[in-house]
Amino acid sequence: MFKFFLVFLTLFFTSCGEKLKKGSANISSDHLSGPVMPKPNQWLGHFGSHRNGISAETNLNLDWFNAEPKRLWKFEIGTGVSGVSAINDTLFSMGNNKGTDTVYCLDGVSGEIIWEYSYRCPLDKRMFEGGPAVTPLIDVKNDQLYTLSHDGNLNCLDFKSGKQKWSLSYVSKVLNGKRPTYGFACSPILYNDDLIISAGGDGTSIASVSPIDGSLNWSCGNGTVGYSSPIIFNLGGVDRIAQFNASKLCLYDPEGKKQVAVVDWRTKYSINAAIPIYSNGHILVSSGYGKGGALFKINDKKFDLVYETKDLLCQFQSPILIDGYVYAVSGDNDSKAKLICMNLNDGKIMWSESFGGNRGNVIYAEGALIVLTERGEVISCKASPESFEEMGRFQAVGGRCWAPPTICNSRLMIRNNAGRLVCYNLKKG
């Protein structure tokens, strides 16, 4: 009798599982806006110059079955998951060695150090190898570089010399920020003459500081900061900033300096880390820990849910959008990684391809997807909703890789969490 009761309970709770909303955005191909493209030979910050994982590079060798890319150099940069930012032949990244964070400026041709800047900061392994988690942000207009430690130390460095111009602590009385459990990981973003940061304090969920001296311009919002980085877009002629916080998706008006919309999006452990995607009045969010993704329509001062999906599991790896289709490495602690192609309109999976590990990253260049698996293998395939069509793969680096790859000036840069940074030549011919 007891066994029968247990079976009944199992069947009951299984049948009463979470019901996901189904729907369609009905964005026709005629109304799809093209991706915001960076300038060639630039990858200015986290996930590219416009935070969409897209490169403007051309004349690349992406057919690796016929010619595998040649490694140009390697460099030990220190422990961390900070990615690489780049402009022309100059690269920036950072890592931690024996309790010291170091920001490196490297020559992209040779891998040699141009300058370095260091400060004391604990490694803080925090459920992974530890070290800095934010990619340096290049400010072309002011010839500056912005870096952030996991404990909230924001530095502004001279682009050419590495000399510190100013610094600001997120947890200071000015910002009153609160360090999230696994450290600060939200990359700053430039908006006109403002540097937008995510301090995560009461009234400082996002804040604008001056790029010139770090002084506070304005702040708003009370959402607990997560690990995702904000995006900026134009909605019906007005600029908006979207920030994916620990348990909410928030929309801000940078001109009015206020929050205009918010919707709950709660995950296990209150972790949201992937960058949202904006397209034609809609925002796509994705999370790990079994949560999945959802598409929201921005309707005046609220978010309307279009659909939900369990097929888009992005623990911290961010998806990309190409011609109305979402490409992502779906996977988290409890599920194996697979590259998927999903229709943005309705969440339908067009195809999927499994590979090793639980996570990975994908970026786009010249009609192709470049996928970096968690185990350091790089895969090239066509960006097509028809099917997965591989163009080659190679083992770039060992260890665990969480930072997305970078493409700049026909070079592919990849780092692992332990700190090995490798550079490969992608130039055709």
What can you tell me about this protein's structure?
The structure is a single chain. With 429 residues, this protein is mainly beta. The chain is built from one helix and 34 strands. The protein has one helix at 2-15, and strands at 42-43, 54-55, 70-76, 85-87, 90-96, 100-107, 113-120, 137-139, 144-148, 153-158, 164-169, 189-191, 194-197, 206-209, 216-220, 231-235, 238-244, 248-253, 258-264, 277-279, 282-287, 292-299, 302-309, 320-322, 325-332, 335-343, 349-354, 360-365, 368-373, 377-382, 390-395, 406-408, 411-415, 420-425. The strands form eight sheets. It has a five-stranded antiparallel beta sheet, with no helix packed on it. The protein has a five-stranded mixed beta sheet with strand order 2-28-29-30-31, with no helix packed on it. Strand 20 (277-279) and strand 21 form a beta hairpin. The N and C termini lie far apart (73 Å). Mean pLDDT is 93; it is low at 1-16.
- Which segments are poorly predicted (pLDDT under 50) over 5 or more consecutive residues? 1-16
- Net shape: globular
Strand order of the largest sheet: 1-4-5-6-7
> What average pLDDT do the residues reach?
93
- Separate helix tally: 1
Percent of residues in β-strands = 35-45%
> Structural class of the secondary elements?
mainly beta
Largest sheet: 5 strands, antiparallel
Work out the radius of gyration. 21 Å
Could you tell me how far the N terminus lies from the C terminus, measured between alpha carbons in angstroms?
73 Å
The helical percent reads under 10%
Q: How many β strands by DSSP? A: 34
